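Reminder to self: tokens first, then the designed residues, so the page reads top to bottom the way the pipeline ran.
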């Protein structure tokens, strides 16, 4: 029991530290009040993140393709920002967006938890559903794509046909 509290406390502390740093990165002039607000808000979010992790029972999964995803992510964010601008201009001109749901298969050995987080962190893709279980080590997910196409990051983390 004692080890469980230690692990939970460590996870909350790690989330808190990351969230404080991220919050402070987006503040132009840091004052004592800003640090206190960032620390308090990060603590609330860190405890919530631990609760979500405990409730979901999710683990990180396999680390295959994380390096390629790490390298592809910045370019995917920039490219998706451009795609989002194009979709916005089209919508302002009266054309409806052409988003679609696609079922994709993650590369074997790729952890669904981190891969779905990375996929959902870009503007063009959002993971809607993760299949209930793996079939022969293969994990399928349903993603919503903004303009019917998959980004380079999507192609790095998925394999096979996209329905």
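Designed residues (163 positions):
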């Amino acid at each position: 029991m004692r080890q469980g509290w230690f692990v939970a406390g460590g996870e909350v502390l790690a989330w808190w530290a990351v969230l404080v740093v991220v919050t402070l990165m987006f503040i132009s002039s840091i004052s004592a009040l800003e640090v206190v607000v960032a620390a308090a808000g990060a603590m609330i979010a860190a405890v919530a993140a631990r609760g979500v992790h405990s409730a979901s029972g999710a683990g990180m999964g396999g680390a295959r393709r994380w390096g390629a995803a790490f390298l592809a992510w910045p370019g995917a964010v920039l490219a998706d920002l451009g795609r989002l601008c194009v979709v916005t201009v089209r919508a302002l001109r009266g054309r409806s967006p052409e988003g679609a749901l696609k079922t994709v298969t993650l590369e074997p050995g790729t952890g669904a938890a981190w891969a779905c987080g990375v996929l959902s962190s870009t503007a063009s893709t959002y993971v809607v559903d993760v299949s209930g279980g793996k079939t022969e080590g293969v994990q399928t997910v349903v993603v919503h794509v903004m303009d019917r196409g998959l980004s380079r990051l999507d192609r790095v983390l998925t394999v096979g046909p996209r329905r």
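The chain has a mean pLDDT of 80.
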